[in-house]
């Protein structure tokens, strides 16, 4: 299923998508205690929001083999972890805002894992039971700040620097999904999640050793090769097989 947050005629709703029709529910889809209301909305008549409201976004750097080769860096022995604040999240169709003073800012297409249950010290073998589903993410990065700061918090944390969406796809196997990014209609990144160094289940094991993951929290699993700069006026679209397309404009 594909679960979404959206508004229609000024009313905020949650629901699931079936054949381009959004079916409105009441209740919490993370807890499973939901019911259909009988209301439906055509997809093209709704405004989609980010499909979850994470309390935290945990990101993983240098987690694609092709990206490590591109950067001429060795594969990490353990995941390189950093975080984005919830205030960085935007949904499909919203604008990525580039502060004029930060210099080069890059796109990074990513598979985002959305947690469905509270997880602490969960093994990789158990991790699938804690995943609600997957969505598309863009780990927008102030590249100059990343280099000059020596750590990544400021470069990754600006408002609008974490587009998510368009919905959460459940019941899919994330082991070998095609992932790509288009910038103004031209493909700039193209790879597969089979290139991941640490897959979603292993990441949950390693991250949940450190911190408790809550329903709705997001793990950004890293980006493949082909990262590059954004400029004002661009349109950037992340595409992931079996999930969908996340498209955002870029403004200054």
Spans of at least 5 consecutive residues whose pLDDT stays below 50 are none
Alpha carbon gyration radius: 17 Å
Helix-and-strand structural type? mainly beta
Assembly context of the chains: single chain
* Alpha carbon gap, first and last residue: 36 Å
At the fold tier of CATH, the topology name of the largest domain is Fumarylacetoacetate hydrolase, domain 2
Secondary structure tally, helices? 4
- Proportion of residues in β-strands: 35-45%
CATH superfamily of the largest domain: Fumarylacetoacetase-like, C-terminal domain
Overall number of strands: 20
Q: Class of the largest domain in CATH? A: Alpha Beta
* CATH architecture assignment of the largest domain: Alpha-Beta Complex
Descriptive overview:
It comes from Dethiobacter alkaliphilus AHT 1. Residues 1-51 form the Rv2993c-like N-terminal domain. This is 5-carboxymethyl-2-hydroxymuconate Delta-isomerase. This protein is mainly beta and 252 residues long. The protein has two domains: 2-48; 57-251, Fumarylacetoacetate hydrolase, domain 2, CATH 3.90.850. 10% of the residues lie in helices and 42% in strands. The chain is built from four helices and 20 strands. Strand 1 (2-8) and strand 2 (11-18) form a beta hairpin. The longest helix is centred in the last third of the chain and has 9 residues, at 200-208. The mean pLDDT is 95.
């Amino acid at each position: 299923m594909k679960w979404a947050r959206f508004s229609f005629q000024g009313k905020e709703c949650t629901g699931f998508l079936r054949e381009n029709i959004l079916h409105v529910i009441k209740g919490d889809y993370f807890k499973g205690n939901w019911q259909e209301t009988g209301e439906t909305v055509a997809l093209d008549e709704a405004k989609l929001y980010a499909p979850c409201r994470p309390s935290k976004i945990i990101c993983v750097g240098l987690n694609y083999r092709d990206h490590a080769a591109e950067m001429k860096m060795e594969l990490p022995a353990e995941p390189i972890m950093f975080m984005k604040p919830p205030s960085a999240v935007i949904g499909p169709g919203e604008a990525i805002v580039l502060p004029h003073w930060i210099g080069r800012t890059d796109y990074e297409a990513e598979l985002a894992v959305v947690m469905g249950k509270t997880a602490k010290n969960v093994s990789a073998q158990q991790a699938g039971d804690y995943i609600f589903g997957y969505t598309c993410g863009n780990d927008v990065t102030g590249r100059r700040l990343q280099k000059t700061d020596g750590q990544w918090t400021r470069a990754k944390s600006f408002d609008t620097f974490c587009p998510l969406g368009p919905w959460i796809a459940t019941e899919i196997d994330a082991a070998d999904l095609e992932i790509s990014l288009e910038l103004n209609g031209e493909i700039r990144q193209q790879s597969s999640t089979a290139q991941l160094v640490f897959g979603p289940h292993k990441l949950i094991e390693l991250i949940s050793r450190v911190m408790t993951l809550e329903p709705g929290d997001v793990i950004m699993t890293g980006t493949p090769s082909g990262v590059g700069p954004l400029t004002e006026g661009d349109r950037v679209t992340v595409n992931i097989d079996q999930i969908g397309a996340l498209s955002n404009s870029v403004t200054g």
